[in-house]
C-alpha cells in the first residue's frame, strides 16, 4: 500500500498543505524545527488516529485554531481510498471512504504503518512500558479486535484499582464487586495475552534470521515473553483465563493490602537475548541497535504476511543514527517494495542509491518550498 496524497489543515505548524507522494521513497528535507517530524507524525496519525509523540490530541491542532484535519488517499489492493482524521474540542472523528467509523478500532488497519525513530533505538534498553507499547501497536494494526480488548482491559483495570484502594481504606470483607471486575479482567487479559503470544511467535520467525543476517551470522537473537503468571504459548485462551483467575484469587489479599492490581498483561515485558546474554543489561549499543532494526524489519514482513500488503515506512531522523552497514541493510531490504518517508536535515550523509532516486520535498516553516524530486 502507499499514500498517494496528503492534505493538512491547521495541523501543528501547517496552515494548509497538500502533497502528492512518490510511491517509492520520499525524502522530507529541512532545517531543524521546520515541521519534518510534524509531517511524519501526521502520516502516523492518519494510520493510528493518535500521535507517537503525545497522548494529548489537542497538541496536534494548530495553536489558536478550532480544529485540525488530516486527509489522505491510500492506494491498496487496486483501490484508491480516502481517509480522514479530524480533531476538535469535541474529540476526534475518523472517516474511511467518507464514512465515519463509530469505533476507532474499526478504522485502524486502514493504513498500515511502521515507524522507526531514534527513540525506537531505545526499545531494548527502555522501560517495559515502551516494549508493551511496541507489541500493542503492532498487534492492533494487524488485528483491530485487539484494540477493543485493550481498551476494555484498561477501563476495567482502572475501576478495579479504584475499588482495591477503597477496600484497602474501608477494610471491608465484601468483595462481591471485586469478583465481577476480576472475571472481566481475566477474560480480556487472556484475549490480550493469547494474541501477544501468537504475534511473538510470528515475529520471531522473521526477526531471528534478519538479526543473524545483519550481524553477519554472529548473533543469535531470542525473544521471550515475561509474565508474573505461569502462562505459556501452548495454552489456549480459556486456560489462560483460568490461570489468571486462580492467580487473582491467590493474590486477593495482597492486592487489597497494596490497593492495586498486581498481575496481568499491563505488567508484562519482553526479554531480548543475544547469544544467551540479555541485550538490555549486557548488550553493546550496537547489539541493541541491531535488535531494534531487526524488529522493525520483521514487522514490515509480518504485516505483509498478515494483511497481504506492505506497510508504509516512516524513518524519522533515524538513518543518520545508523552506521553505513546497518543503513544500507535497511535500505536494501525495503528497496522497491515499501513506500518510505525519510526525514533529514542533510541528504549528503546518505549515500545509498535509493535516496539518490528519491523524490525530495523541502520544508520551511510549515510550508513546502520545493519539490525537486524525480524531475530534477
Ligand atoms: N500545535 C502547534 N501549532 C503550531 N505550531 C506547532 C505546534 N506544535 C508544534 N509546532 C511547531 O512545529 C515546529 C517543530 O516542528 P517539527 O517537530 O516537525 O521539527 P523538525 O522539522 O522535525 O525539526 P527537528 O529536525 O529539530 O526535529 C516548532 O517550530 C513548533 O513550534
From TrEMBL:
<keyword id="KW-0742">SOS response</keyword>
<dbReference type="InterPro" id="IPR027417">
    <property type="entry name" value="P-loop_NTPase"/>
</dbReference>
<comment type="similarity">
    <text>Belongs to the RecF family.</text>
</comment>
<dbReference type="InterPro" id="IPR003395">
    <property type="entry name" value="RecF/RecN/SMC_N"/>
</dbReference>
<feature type="domain" description="RecF/RecN/SMC N-terminal">
    <location>
        <begin position="2"/>
        <end position="346"/>
    </location>
</feature>
<keyword id="KW-0547">Nucleotide-binding</keyword>
<keyword id="KW-0963">Cytoplasm</keyword>
<dbReference type="InterPro" id="IPR042174">
    <property type="entry name" value="RecF_2"/>
</dbReference>
<keyword id="KW-0238">DNA-binding</keyword>
<dbReference type="InterPro" id="IPR018078">
    <property type="entry name" value="DNA-binding_RecF_CS"/>
</dbReference>
<dbReference type="InterPro" id="IPR001238">
    <property type="entry name" value="DNA-binding_RecF"/>
</dbReference>
<keyword id="KW-0235">DNA replication</keyword>
<keyword id="KW-0234">DNA repair</keyword>
<comment type="function">
    <text>The RecF protein is involved in DNA metabolism; it is required for DNA replication and normal SOS inducibility. RecF binds preferentially to single-stranded, linear DNA. It also seems to bind ATP.</text>
</comment>
<dbReference type="Pfam" id="PF02463">
    <property type="entry name" value="SMC_N"/>
</dbReference>
<keyword id="KW-0227">DNA damage</keyword>
<feature type="binding site">
    <location>
        <begin position="30"/>
        <end position="37"/>
    </location>
    <ligand>
        <name>ATP</name>
    </ligand>
</feature>
<keyword id="KW-0067">ATP-binding</keyword>
<protein>
    <recommendedName>
        <fullName>DNA replication and repair protein RecF</fullName>
    </recommendedName>
</protein>
Amino acid at each position: 500500500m502507499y499514500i498517494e496524497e496528503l492534505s493538512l489543515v491547521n495541523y501543528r505548524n501547517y496552515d494548509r498543505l497538500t502533497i502528492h507522494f512518490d510511491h517509492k521513497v520520499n525524502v522530507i528535507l529541512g532545517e531543524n524545527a521546520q515541521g519534518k517530524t510534524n509531517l511524519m507524525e501526521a502520516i502516523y496519525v492518519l494510520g493510528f488516529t493518535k500521535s507517537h509523540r503525545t497522548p494529548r490530541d489537542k497538541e496536534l491542532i494548530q495553536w489558536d485554531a478550532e480544529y485540525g484535519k488530516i486527509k489522505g488517499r491510500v492506494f491498496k489492493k487496486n483501490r484508491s481510498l480516502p481517509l480522514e482524521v479530524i480533531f476538535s474540542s469535541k474529540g476526534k472523528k475518523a472517516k474511511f471512504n467518507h464514512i465515519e467509523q463509530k469505533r476507532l478500532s474499526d478504522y485502524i488497519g486502514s493504513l498500515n504503518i511502521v515507524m522507526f525513530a531514534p527513540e525506537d533505538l531505545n526499545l531494548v534498553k527502555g522501560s517495559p512500558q515502551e516494549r508493551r507499547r511496541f507489541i500493542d501497536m503492532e498487534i492492533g494494526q494487524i488485528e483491530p479486535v485487539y484494540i477493543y480488548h485493550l481498551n476494555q482491559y484498561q477501563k476495567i483495570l482502572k475501576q478495579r484499582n479504584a475499588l482495591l484502594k477503597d477496600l484497602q481504606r474501608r477494610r471491608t470483607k465484601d468483595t462481591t464487586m471485586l469478583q465481577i471486575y476480576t472475571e472481566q479482567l481475566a477474560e480480556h487479559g487472556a484475549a490480550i495475552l493469547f494474541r501477544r503470544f501468537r504475534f511473538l511467535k510470528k515475529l520471531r520467525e522473521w526477526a531471528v534470521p534478519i538479526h543473524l543476517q545483519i550481524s553477519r551470522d554472529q548473533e543469535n537473537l531470542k525473544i521471550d515473553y515475561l509474565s508474573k503468571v505461569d502462562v505459556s504459548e501452548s495454552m489456549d485462551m480459556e486456560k489462560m483465563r483460568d490461570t489468571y483467575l486462580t492467580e487473582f484469587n491467590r493474590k486477593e489479599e495482597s492486592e487489597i493490602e497494596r490497593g492495586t492490581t498486581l498481575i496481568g498483561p499491563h505488567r508484562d515485558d519482553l526479554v531480548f537475548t543475544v547469544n544467551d546474554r540479555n541485550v538490555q543489561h549486557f548488550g553493546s549499543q550496537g547489539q541493541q541497535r541491531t535488535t531494534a532494526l531487526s524488529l522493525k524489519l520483521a514487522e514490515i514482513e509480518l504485516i505483509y504476511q498478515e494483511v497481504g500488503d506492505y506497510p508504509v515506512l516512516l524513518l524519522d531522523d533515524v538513518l543518520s543514527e545508523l552506521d553505513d552497514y546497518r543503513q544500507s541493510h535497511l535500505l536494501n531490504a525495503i528497496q522497491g517494495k515499501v513506500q518510505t518517508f525519510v526525514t533529514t536535515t542533510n541528504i549528503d550523509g546518505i549515500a545509498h542509491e535509493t535516496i539518490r532516486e528519491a523524490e525530495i520535498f523541502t520544508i520551511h516553516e510549515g510550508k513546502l518550498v520545493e519539490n525537486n524530486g524525480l524531475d530534477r
